[in-house]
Design goal:
Layout (H helix, E strand, L loop, with lengths): L5 E5 H11 L4 E4 L7 H9 L3 E3 L3 H13 L3 E7 H6 L1 H10 L4 E8 L13 H7 L3 E2 L4 H18 L3 E6 H5 L1 E5 L16 H4 L3 H22 L6 E3 L2 E9 H10 L3 E6 L1 E3 L3 H9 L3 E5 L5 H8 L5 E2 L11 H8 L22 H11 L3 E3 L33 H4 L2 E6 H17 L6 E7 L28 H7 L5 E4 L5 H14 L2 E7 L6 H20 L1
Parallel strand pairs: 2-3, 2-4, 4-5, 5-7, 6-7, 10-11, 10-13, 13-14, 15-16, 16-17, 17-19, 18-19
Antiparallel strand pairs: 1-8, 6-12, 9-11
Helix pairs in contact: 1-2, 1-7, 3-5, 11-14, 15-19
The chain binds thiamine diphosphate and iron/sulfur cluster.
The site of thiamine diphosphate has 23 residues, from helix 4 and helix 17.
């Protein structure tokens, strides 16, 4: 990969290649399927990529670079944009001096997510232009276009991908590298970037003016294409749905939208007027259909049952036939399981045996909810295990919050601050499962591992010191695989103590333990060489 002009790439890899060719100075993000490979590939290509503790920080770091005139990209999965929404909305006001691409990788069908929220709504709510590629070639081309749009209008741009686009491999013809002509340089612009109300009010108006200009430009933008066909039937679509539509209805006229916010309403109206029936086919919420109808254009939309799950060629054929009968149930797959010998197994055995109420979190350990453990009672979003509410005392005494190390750094620390500040009257037990990696998304590093995205040594947060620093004195360290009896004993004692207790269950993930040794060995070698020099 790299210099070749024609290669088979996933959408994620294509975005990374475009970022590299565009001379993006900084790629930052937090892992999350299906977005993770973008930064990993960008780093392999030689780009400056780094994991942030969470998506909010990632977006803020990228914004800072874009304030200084650099091209920057922030990557995340759809729910990550909830975490990053705060800076996103106001970054639309401040705008940027360089380019800022925010990648939201949505997961319709919830292949590996806790919900299937449709992040197209964020483009409208925050007021940022949105591009939706349909395959890897477009992922490459649109990422480059996103840089152009961002620089031209000095505005963050949302590049919205979905699982199939992120992970399917299609041929990509790439162009020559085209880095920015100027080096980053921070120029002070107090009224443009300090969003006190007096400066934010005009910034809000500037944003609306930019969006009006982009909308006018979008009317003739080549990112939206008409594929001429039978004029009795037209389909308006975007993203991956376009691929399925072409296969399911090759005879139809199609308006394929690429820059989907702000919508090119005149172009859409002209298309709809030119066909007898016009149907909008889109995955997820009926966002496109409703936006088009709101502009006074008559279009039909899919039956409500197709709002859920990914679309496919057979499902689009059903939509075209207005078939609302029950769909065939998918063939049940093998349920996922914790790896044999995984240290999380010992933790969930202990929680099961102690009959705890387990406020769970997201990671490999969420599998503790399945048999044989069935030891999890809630799991909502990253960090939610710690901020649990108040139960009647007899039940509150049995509650244990269980959170992974990456998740703890991402959004568990503030929950623990809340506990130290408003201690539960019956005490509480927080169990941090420190396996020295972000296992669930493919073993990424995080600030608790002491290694960078490229697995090189860096600053390391020591959870026990951090927790003690919050004023929590009862902190225990245990290796759950080596000493399950001690873990069980600690758990019982802690539950009975009526104090706030943090237990850190530390044992590297089995699948990464060997690699960690290699990284450590490589780091020691570098240190020795430096000392010898
Ligand atoms: C806001 C948000 N960002 C990212 C994700 C994807 N994700 C789910 S769990 C997880 C972290 C898992 O790592 P850890 O907590 O260390 O547990 P492990 O899998 O290692 O057991 C990530 C990145 C998500 N679900 N939500
Ligand atoms: S990948 Fe690691 S943490 Fe996840 S189940 Fe396997 S051993 Fe456990």
């Amino acid at each position: 990969m790299g210099d070749s002009k024609r290669e088979l790439l996933s959408g994620d890899e294509a975005v990374a290649l475009a970022a590299f060719h565009a001379g993006v100075a900084l790629g930052t993000g937090y892992p999350g399927t299906p977005s993770t490979e973008i930064l990993e590939t960008f780093s392999e290509l030689g780009g400056h990529a780094q994991w942030a503790p969470n998506e909010k920080v990632a977006l803020e770091v990228a914004l800072g670079a874009a304030f200084a005139g650099a091209r920057a990209i922030a990557t995340m999965k759809h729910v990550g944009l909830n975490v990053a929404a705060d800076p996103l909305f106001t970054a639309a006001y401040t705008g940027v001096s360089g380019a800022l691409i925010v990648v939201s990788a949505d997961d319709p069908g919830m292949g590996s997510s806790q919900n299937e929220q449709d992040n197209r709504h964020y483009a409208v709510a925050a007021g940022v232009p949105m591009l939706e590629p349909s395959d890897s070639q477009e992922a490459y081309d649109f990422a480059l276009r996103a840089v152009e749009i961002s620089e031209r209008w000095k505005i963050p741009v949302l590049l919205r991908l979905t699982t199939r686009v992120c992970h399917s491999r299609t041929i990509v013809r790439s162009g020559a590298a085209n880095p920015p002509s100027q080096s980053p340089n921070f120029v002070r612009d107090i009224k443009g970037r300090v969003m006190i109300p007096a400066y934010a009010r005009p910034a809000g108006r500037r944003l609306r003016q930019k969006l009006a200009e982009i909308q006018a430009w979008n009317e003739n933008c080549p990112l939206n294409r008409v594929i001429a066909g039978d004029d009795s039937f037209g389909i308006i679509t975007s993203g991956i749905s376009y691929m399925h539509v072409r296969e399911a209805a090759p005879e139809a006229s199609v308006l394929k939208l690429g820059l989907t916010y702000p919508l090119p309403t005149q172009k859409i109206r002209a298309f709809a007027d030119g066909v007898k029936h016009c149907l909008v086919i889109e995955e997820g919420d009926p966002w496109l259909a409703e936006s088009i109808r709101a502009a006074g254009i008559k279009v039909e939309s899919k039956p409500a049952m197709y709002r859920f799950g990914e679309l496919s060629v057979p499902r689009i054929k059903r939509i075209l036939a207005n078939d609302t009968t029950t769909e065939p149930a998918p063939v049940p797959g093998k349920p996922p399981q914790l790896c044999p010998g995984c240290s999380h197994r010992y933790v969930f055995e202990a929680l099961h045996d102690a009959d705890c109420i387990v406020a769970g979190d997201i990671g490999c350990y969420t599998l503790g909810v399945l048999p044989p453990f069935e030891a999890m009672d809630s799991c909502v979003c990253m960090g939610a295990s710690i901020g649990v509410g108040l139960l009647p005392p007899e039940q509150a005494r049995r509650v244990v919050s269980v959170i992974g190390d990456s998740t703890f750094v991402h959004s568990g620390i503030t929950g623990l601050v809340e506990m130290a500040y408003n201690p539960p009257p019956t005490g509480h037990v927080v169990l941090i499962l420190d396996n020295s990696t972000t296992a669930m998304t493919g073993h990424q590093e995080h600030p608790g591992t002491g290694r960078t995205l490229a697995h090189e040594p860096t600053g390391k947060i020591l959870f026990e010191d951090l927790v003690r620093g919050l004023g929590i004195s009862r902190v225990h360290l245990v290796d759950p695989s080596a000493d399950p009896e001690r873990l069980a004993k600690l758990l019982t004692e802690s539950l009975n103590s009526e104090e706030l207790v943090v237990i850190i269950a530390r044992r590297p993930c089995l699948l990464i333990a060997g690699k960690i040794k290699e990284y450590d060995r490589a780091a020691t070698q570098v240190c020795t060489e430096i000392q010898a020099d």
